Amino acid sequence: MDEVTVRPIRPEDAGEVLTLQRAAFVQEALIYGSPEMPPLTQTLEELEAELAENLGCVALAGHRIVGAVRAQRDGELLLVGRLAIAPDQQGRGLGTTLLAAVEERGANEGATEAELFTGSLSEANLRLYQREGYVETERVPGDDGTEQVFLRKPLVR
């Protein structure tokens, strides 16, 4: 694997991040049997607006963005979302690296706890988050018989 560097996400990353996001979330769409997931239907304009103020990070192999995660602070809570790893780069620790980077950014901005969510059928995601110290706090039933699983983790400065 090429050496990977991590840096803050920027609005000008929107096009490449959207392409990465769509590639990464195809597997999730297959698991849930629906291509109508927000990561797959989000527009470039929506993503550009979201990145205007975001604590997220991207992972780069050379000049290529191979991973991205977004986050926003809500008081002392860091809301983490849309962790996406290029399909050809999955299983190499990039998710762990990006989570650590975004948690550090959030803690430096005053967040004391991070929260994220995933679907109940996303077993690999749940394993990653639990391995990284996230603890399930709530399950919200969905219309399709699955649940959104919310997890939290205290942040250390």
What do these coordinates show?
- The chain has 157 residues and is an alpha+beta fold.
- The protein is 35% helix and 33% strand.
- The protein is built from five helices and seven strands, in the order E-H-H-H-E-E-E-H-E-H-E-E.
- The protein has a seven-stranded mixed beta sheet with strand order 1-2-3-4-5-7-6.
- Strand 3 and strand 4 (77-85) form a beta hairpin.
- The chain is globular, with a radius of gyration of 15 Å.
- It starts with a strand and ends with a strand.
- The model has no long low-confidence stretch (mean pLDDT 93).
In short:
This protein has helices at 14-32, 38-41, 44-51, 94-108, 123-131; strands at residues 4-8, 57-61, 64-74, 77-85, 113-119, 135-141, 147-154. The protein is an alpha+beta fold and 157 residues long. The protein is globular.
Q: How do the helices and strands line up, and which of them pair or pack?
A:
Elements (H helix, E strand, L loop, with lengths): L3 E5 L5 H19 L5 H4 L2 H8 L5 E5 L2 E11 L2 E9 L8 H15 L4 E7 L3 H9 L3 E7 L5 E8 L3
Parallel strand pairs: 4-5
Antiparallel strand pairs: 1-2, 2-3, 3-4, 5-7, 6-7
Entry keywords:
157 residues; alpha+beta; seven-stranded mixed beta sheet; 5 helices; 33% strand
Structural class: alpha+beta
Number of helices: 5
Largest sheet: 7 strands, mixed
The overall pLDDT, averaged over residues, is 93
Low-confidence parts, pLDDT < 50 over ≥5 residues? none
Shape category = globular
Task: Tell me how many strands there are.
Answer: 7
C-alpha termini separation: 30 Å
- Order of strands, main sheet, comes to 1-2-3-4-5-7-6
Q: Per DSSP, what share of the residues sits in E-state strands of 2 or more residues?
A: 25-35%
Helix content: 25-40%
The quaternary structure here is single chain
H/E order of the elements? EHHHEEEHEHEE
Give the C-alpha Rg: 15 Å
